[in-house]
Amino acid sequence: MQLTYIQQEIMGILRRAGASYANPVSSAEISKTLNVTPSYVREQGKALFDGGLIRVRRGPGGGYFLNRERED
User: Fold this and answer.
1) Which of 14, 21, 43, 51 is the most buried (most CB within 10 A)?
2) Residue 10: which domain range?
3) Do 62 and 20 touch, CB atoms closer than 8 A?
4) 71 within a domain of the structure (yes/no)
């Protein structure tokens, strides 16, 4: 999967934050770091999720984290 610049940045944020199921990073947090809208982060996150690179924890306290099974 060829990642766009913003997708690479999202992956980097998740790596640096040590994001996991117990400690996901929200689209609001990512959007503040990248200075983009949360809806744009969610759109890009969907592409990463569909590609199997990240996982999503839904609900309050939810967010994105790396799919450790696919990390290389």
Assistant:
1) 14
2) 5-66
3) no
4) no
Residue with tokens 């939810």: 62
Give pLDDT tens digits along the chain (72 positions).
899 999 999 999 999 999 999 999 999 999 999 999 999 999 999 999 999 999 999 999 999 999 987 554
Report yes or no on 72 lying in a domain.
Answer: no
Q: How far apart are CA 35 and CA 68, in angstroms?
A: 27
Q: What are phi and psi of 19, to 5 degrees?
A: -60, 135
Question: Are 23 and 62 contacting, i.e. CB atoms less than 8 angstroms apart?
Answer: no
Answer whether 45's CB lies under 8 Å from 51's CB.
no
